């Protein structure tokens, strides 16, 4: 199912596994809060992933208001609150 979903956007199917692994590592980096630098990069990775996913949905004709757009809106309060708690 996921392979078909990625192929619908004209993305190669081999990118699914590395992307999933990086998302899991990003969540672990954010939740562990061991390194401020690593946490910032994890948030940056999620931001760029959500921006590119929103653009991919738009170019595929699915519309801009999907889960990726909602995730893009939700990531800002998460980042700001997390930064407030870290400092």
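^ Assign residues to that structure.
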């Amino acid at each position: 199912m996921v392979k078909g979903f990625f192929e619908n956007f004209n993305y190669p199917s081999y990118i699914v596994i590395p992307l999933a692994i990086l998302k899991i590592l990003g969540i672990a980096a954010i939740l562990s809060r061991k390194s401020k630098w690593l946490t910032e990069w994890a948030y940056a990775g999620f931001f760029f992933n959500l921006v590119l996913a929103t653009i991919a949905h738009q170019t595929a004709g699915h519309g801009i208001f999907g889960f990726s757009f909602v995730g893009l809106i939700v990531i800002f309060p998460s980042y700001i609150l997390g930064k407030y708690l870290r400092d």
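Residues 6 and 14 are 9 Å apart (CA to CA).
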